[in-house]
């Protein structure tokens, strides 16, 4: 009985070993694990990222680097407390070849740690956590989106150049909010402005009234805020509802008004934001992307859809260079590092820390679109403070 059991175990182990090599051999499918928010304030962002990613794969006939792509997914609920368990479902249970995620910076930092420890490829299609391409940077970790510093720094310059002197900031108290405010403050104060008060509330709370009352009483020249998804919809509406938009301009990174204008309506009209994507770019590349996306999903794309699409493009570049063999990590990274990514946002390159080097647009809300009104900062690279690679 015991011997039989031992034999069965041995046979199972051998089968597993064959299976494991087989899975990595050329010809087998590449398993992509989406770890994204499908519920909560960022749910629409997660869906747009997945849509964008799948669109690019479809355009390539379902294959990247000569290998078919299969998907598994986990809803991370934008909950950092569940992040390590969730990412390990993909790494250990599902044995994915590549992880694509996520939106929330706190969740992304736990994912980056797990990716670094296990060596699993990770492409971050949104979360801006500066640490991911800073102190936590790694050869197997890439970002198709931005660092929280990038659009924030650009807005600090814009706001100062528009003549504002005293600003109040307001955001959710977590990595993305803190880093966004820091990036804004750095450029705003370098250019003669001053951040006089930093207001926060816990993520993902939307009880803004007391803080809006504080802003009204302090009468700053401008307000800078980081919110996104459902929270951004409510914040922009409450800001206008309190009448503040008449006298105190509200600025932010473009997340404040991207994918949200339908719901924000009049409250968002005329707002200026900075971001690495905009409506009305009117390039052949962006027009083709927008048409294909609208056809596939009966929806207009937003920055999140673009970031998902470009995450798939980056995976395609890496897999193409290694002919589908994900074990060749150094060649995979080298190909992405020297690539020019043909993004709908405009072509961009990837820094040594693996973050996009990209133009940051100034946009103005006009009806249902974030109309491009110029480039705020050209070819902006994150400083990648603390990255040793
Ligand atoms: C983030 O947590 O890094 C984050 C979330 C939503 C955004 C942008 C950044 O729209």
Characterize the structure shown.
This protein is an alpha/beta fold and 389 residues long. The chain folds into 2 domains: 27-146 and 281-350, Response regulator (Rossmann fold, 3-Layer(aba) Sandwich); 149-275, Response regulator (Rossmann fold), CATH 3.40.50. The protein contains 12 helices and 14 strands. The strands form 2 sheets. Strands 7, 8, 9, 10, 11, 12, 13 and 14 form an 8-stranded mixed sheet that branches. α3 (83-93) runs parallel beside α4 (105-118) and α5 packs parallel to α6. P-hydroxybenzoic acid binds at residues 103-105, 126-129, 148, 176, 228, 255.
Structure characteristics:
42% helix, globular, 389 residues, Rossmann fold, 14 strands, 6-stranded mixed beta sheet, single chain, alpha/beta, 2 domains, 8-stranded mixed beta sheet, binds P-hydroxybenzoic acid
Topology:
Layout: H1 2-24, E1 30-36, H2 43-59, E2 63-64, E3 67-75, H3 83-93, E4 98-100, H4 105-118, E5 121-124, E6 141-143, H5 149-161, E7 166-172, H6 175-190, E8 194-201, H7 209-218, E9 222-226, H8 229-241, E10 250-253, H9 261-264, E11 272-275, H10 284-297, H11 303-321, H12 329-337, E12 349-350, E13 356-366, E14 369-380
Parallel strand pairs: 1-3, 1-4, 4-5, 5-6, 7-8, 7-9, 9-10, 10-11
Antiparallel strand pairs: 2-3, 11-13, 12-13, 13-14
The structure holds P-hydroxybenzoic acid.
Helix/strand/pairing category? alpha/beta
Uncertain residue segments: 1-25
Helix-strand string: HEHEEHEHEEHEHEHEHEHEHHHEEE
Strand count, sense and closure of the main sheet?
8 strands, mixed
Tally of alpha and pi helices: 12
Average predicted confidence as pLDDT: 94
The shape, in one word, is: globular
The value of Rg in angstroms is 22 Å
